[in-house]
Amino acid sequence: MTPLPEHGTPWPDLEHRMRALGARDVKWREGKTAVYVFNAGPEIEQVKKAAYAMFSEENGLGPAAFPSLAQMEREVVGFGLALMHAPAGAAGAMTSGGTDSITMAVKAARDHARAKGQKGPANIVIPYSAHPAFDKACALMDIEVRRIPLKDYLADPTAMEAAIDANTLMLVGSAPCFPFGLIDPIPELGAIAAKHGVWLHVDACVGGYFAPFAAMNGAALTAWDFALPGVMSISADLHKYGYASKGASTVLFRSEALKERMTFDAGPWPLGRMTTPTLAGTRPGGAIAAAWAVMNFLGVDGYRAKQGAVVQAREKIEAGVQRLGFRVHGAPQLGLIAFTHERADTFGLFAKMHHRGWMQGALVDPPALHLMLSPIHNEVADVYLTDLGTALADSGVAPKAANYSE
Ligand SMILES: Cc1ncc(COP(=O)(O)O)c(C=O)c1O
């Protein structure tokens, strides 16, 4: 237990102490962090902080009190729906993050299935690579999760179809999945979902605000959004490749009626009835405002440039690690990549890279180094590759092994 200080402390002292605390954190602004943060440069950081501060006290729970936030949320959701080719009448909401958006989509699918007469113990069918947020949502709602093995790092539509039964609420595909950065075969999953009358959710938490711009820049991506008729809902985070402040995601639905399944309508209590659109009660005005500001600040051109830089970084690193003898898992097209060296211990390499200041992710199945890249990484990709080559050499694997055939 830490007792609350008896007397207050002046802000300059606190600021000083907080800077000292922060000094122990990773130096993500220097570009050596490829997990947890998205570094789109100091200008974006300044815009989002200023916008957040302007609305940090306002509360999105009260749209009548704060029509400003209601309008900003409507516009942000509208941007998402348009980017993801939603049909007329589609709707959505801002949430606090990917886990929240996913939870709300599962809740909507559950209530939709119940309204259609589903009674037995419910289940959802998801690929092995789907984010654990689905497990969390299902644990909260007492829903069984059927995690189906992958085929070539992607969701396996045939195996997933075989797992569907009368109590399946939802089928899930990712665009892309976090572990490998790959877009699942959503068109096939959409056809299966339509055939069985099951809700298809696309988890585009990490790709929803990346893939549309990569496509505009010329990438030939697997179709994954509302252009596919089977897609009922999409989770897409603004606090990832939307470059917004943390605490901002969107959950989008094919129609207003499907979105209404997400609403929680409670009462009675002394205030009568209380309906909330998402999991949260109080909704941080700062997160809504920062997302709105960054999206308007960047516009399509700005996002295309930022995501183009990320793709360039990924291409450089992909080619570089292959030259060093690593095998890239699947064929990533967006900002994430995972790779393994068959002759080096992945976690030994991870530790050596960490020692050189690199903070990145790692997979355990299969063991692999993992990067979630930001625009800044385009400037430091060569340094990363040099350091990785040194780490390999320190592990007793000569970098020249690069050209050995797999
Ligand atoms: C594909 C995917 N889904 C869901 C999430 C969960 O998002 P959050 O951490 O914002 O709850 C993540 C986070 O990385 C993700 O990559």
Question: Describe it for me?
Answer:
- With 406 residues, the chain is an alpha/beta fold.
- It has 2 domains: 49-294, Type I PLP-dependent aspartate aminotransferase-like (Major domain) (Aspartate Aminotransferase, domain 2); 299-398, Alpha-Beta Complex (Aspartate Aminotransferase, domain 1), CATH 3.90.1150.
- Helices cover 40% and strands 17% of the residues.
- It has 12 helices and 13 strands.
- The chain has helices at 11-22, 42-54, 67-83, 98-115, 133-141, 157-162, 186-196, 211-216, 256-260, 285-323, 346-355, 377-394; strands at 91-95, 123-127, 144-148, 168-174, 199-203, 231-237, 249-253, 264-269, 272-276, 327-328, 336-340, 361-364, 367-372.
- The strands form 3 sheets. It has a 7-stranded mixed sheet, sandwiched between helices. A 4-stranded antiparallel sheet has the order 10-11-13-12.
- α8 (211-216) links the parallel β5 (199-203) and β6 (231-237).
- α2 runs antiparallel to α10, α4 (98-115) packs across α5 and α10 packs across α12.
- Mean pLDDT is 96; it is low at 401-406.
